Amino acid sequence: MHITHVRLLTVPVSDLDAAKTFYAGTLGFDVVMDRSTGPIRWLQLAPEGAQTNIVLADHVPAPGSLHGLMLETSDLDADCAKLRAAGVDVDGPQDLPWGRQATLTDPDGNGIVLAAR
Predict the structure, then answer these.
(1) Domain CATH code at residue 107
(2) I want to staple 32 with a disulfide (CB 3.0 to 4.6 A). Which of 37, 44, 80, 105 is the partner?
(3) 52-77: per-residue pLDDT in tens?
């Protein structure tokens, strides 16, 4: 595998503003992006200098579920082939406007995105 780090982790929350206050105010995370697109608000934060960011989300299933774990890889095609050889159902890779990515789920059904820069 060529995974280098976790890029994004989505954290399901019930109140975006209260969560932003906690992560940015209490924990001292930097607000990387706070933007609304239609009914969806993208609220991304990270500790200063971190490679991994979190996205606070109130539009995903109930808190306690995990969707959107994004793992960055330096060789997406090789990793998809290796995952398929291990019996994992991988969708992609796909070329998208923001980069290349593939999706899969873990044994519990948690959604994972494998992404290349």
Answers:
(1) 3.10.180.10
(2) 44
(3) 998 988 876 655 476 777 878 889 99
